[in-house]
Amino acid sequence: MQAKKRYLLVSVGAGLLFLVYLWGLQIGEFQQQPYQYHQFPQYPQYHQPDYQYYHQSQEVYQPLPQRSPSRPPRHWPESTQLLEPYLEGGEQEEDSPQVQHQHTSPRERRAIRDNIYRNKRCRMETCFDFARCQTGFRVYIYPPQRGDEISETYQKILSSIEESRFHTTDPSRACLFILAVDTLDRDQLSAQFVQNVRLRIQSLPTWNDGRNHLIFNLYSGTWPDYTEDLGFEVGQAMLAKASADVVNFRPNFDISIPLFSKEHPLKGGGMGYLTLNDAPPSRKYLLVFKGKRYLTGIGSETRNALYHIHNGEDIILLTTCKHGKDWEKHKDSRCDRDNEEYSK
């Protein structure tokens, strides 16, 4: 019995000595490492010279001094190993323009969106008064004010309504209201930008925070960010807009319309080619686009990546690089060919 107790005590003592030995090894390794971590702040915008990073100066990457790690370094991918570009010839398009002070921060974008689209949850059941439509669907266009300049495109929209059987000159019978002020182009750099739209809309006698109103818009915001800043609050009005953002679009309430030019005819021409059981329609061209191919900024990556579907037969994409004053600075290998085909 005494022998068993002595054997048990010896085993326990040997185990304790082994644990103490391991603990001493860890303490010694810890003391050999330089204690520098207390100097590092927790904010990512500050860098200490002990960290390894690369500094870009005149497109030349120079390694800065680094700390000798006590542990094997992790092999992260180098910053120069970029994905293969989809564009032809490896050309890379800049997603942001060079003028930094003209950028709109994400916070400013949210502020603009929240200010203009305050009634994000508007639906026909909540922001439209169906009682005004009990006697029929009538559309009223506000009379233009003195000095109003209306673009040719917006005048076509108004004329098509005035010549329809739904138009009425009596606002008390109207189910839907259309503004006389031109809201198609809300780019502040555009010559067709209308000033003081907010005050003019809010002074309308039947505005009622936009209830039962329909607003048309093709362009919003300005270069380089092209935010959806209309310059006035939409309120409870329905918005018929081109290139609408999915964040701001109110389903079953707003209307998504195509972006059309001023050359678009007011009325359609002859009868179409669609006949019974004729799918797809027997037309020569399946898809046609002619416009500007932005070399930088929002939309440049998408338009530059679609050139490959142009086959010159039933799918025609004609684009030009001539957009802005400094387009030649961002000129790529396809610009000369695209500009030539666009001018034909």
UniProtKB/TrEMBL annotation:
Protein keywords: Glycosyltransferase, Transferase
Family note: Belongs to the glycosyltransferase 47 family.
TM segment ranges: none
GO MF entries: glycosyltransferase activity
Keyword Isomerase among UniProt keywords: no
Matches recorded under Pfam families: Exostosin_GT47
Identification of the protein by name: Exostosin GT47 domain-containing protein
Location of the region described as Disordered in the Swiss-Prot/TrEMBL record: 89-110
PANTHER family: ACETYLGLUCOSAMINYLTRANSFERASE, EXOSTOSIN GLYCOSYLTRANSFERASE 1
One Gene Ontology term from the biological process aspect of the record: heparan sulfate proteoglycan biosynthetic process
